[in-house]
C-alpha cells in the first residue's frame, strides 16, 4: 500500500496507532516528533496543516521510519539528530544520544565558568568522552570567552563532534583529540567535564532495547561497579586542572557517595551536587582542596 495522498493527520494517526499497538512508552510523542522531523514541520504545523496531503515519496519515507521505530530504534536516531541546550546535534552510531538530564551538568558548570572568566579572561574546557560534543559545545555557545577540546577514544565520535561544532558556528573555538581519558592530554584546563560510562556491566542486558541496541556499549559500560571511568578521571585530573578550576561529572542516580569518595581521595572537594528533573542526583562538581 503506497499511501499516496494521505494527509499529515492520517499519517500521525497511523504512526500513533502502530506505536500504541507495539506497547511503546509514549506513542503520541514519538509519532509527533518523528513525522514533524521527517516532513520538516513545526509542532504548530502538525495542527494547522493537518489536512494537507503528503506526496507519495515522503509518505514512503514516513512508513519506513515507522517500521524502524517498531524495531525499537529511537526516534532521534532515525532522524539523525537531536537538540541539546538549544543546539542541533548530529548523531552517529559511535555517539551516545544526548539526554535532557545532561543539561543539568551544563547549567551547574556555567555558573562556575563565569567566575573563572572574570578572574582569568579566556578559559579552556576539556570534555572527556565528548561523543557528539554536546556538553562542550553547549558551554562554548554560552561562554564566548572559552575555547574547548573534546577528547574521545572513537575517531568516528570525534568526527561527529567536529561536524557539530561546524554546524553550530563553534569550530574556531573547538578542537578534538583522540585519547583514552588523559592519555593524550598535555596541558591544563580551567574546566574539565565528562558524562562517562557509569552503568554496571551486569546491568547492560536489562536496559531498554532503545539503549542497549543503539547506544554504543563503550559509552554505557562502566565496569563491574560502574565506577571505572571515575577512577581513571579522578586519579589523573589533578595534573590537568588549574588550581582554581572545576571538574563536573554526570553520575548515575545512586553513585553520589561512591564518586565523591573517589575524588576526595585524590585531593578534591565536592563543591556542588545537582539533581535532575526526576529529583535524582545527576551532576557533581569538584575543586582542588585548599
What does this structure look like?
With 290 residues, the protein is of the alpha/beta class. The chain has two domains: 8-79, Ubiquitin-associated (UBA) domain (Helicase, Ruva Protein, domain 3); 93-288, Rossmann fold (3-Layer(aba) Sandwich). The chain contains eleven helices and nine strands. It has helices at 8-21, 27-39, 43-48, 56-70, 75-79, 103-120, 134-142, 155-167, 209-212, 228-240, 256-264, and strands at residues 81-84, 87-90, 123-128, 146-152, 174-178, 189-194, 241-250, 268-275, 281-288. The strands form two sheets. The chain has a seven-stranded mixed β-sheet with strand order 5-4-3-6-7-9-8, with helices on both faces. It is elongated and about 70 Å long.
Give the number of DSSP strands. Answer: 9
CATH topology of the largest domain: Rossmann fold
What is the CATH top level name of the largest domain? Alpha Beta
By CATH, the architecture of the largest domain is named 3-Layer(aba) Sandwich
Helix content: 40-55%
Biggest β-sheet description: 7 strands, mixed
Q: What's the gist of this structure?
A:
This protein has 11 helices and 9 strands. With 290 residues, it is of the alpha/beta class.
Feature tags:
290 residues; alpha/beta; Helicase, Ruva Protein, domain 3; Rossmann fold; 2 domains; 7-stranded mixed beta sheet; two-stranded antiparallel sheet; 11 helices; 20% strand; elongated
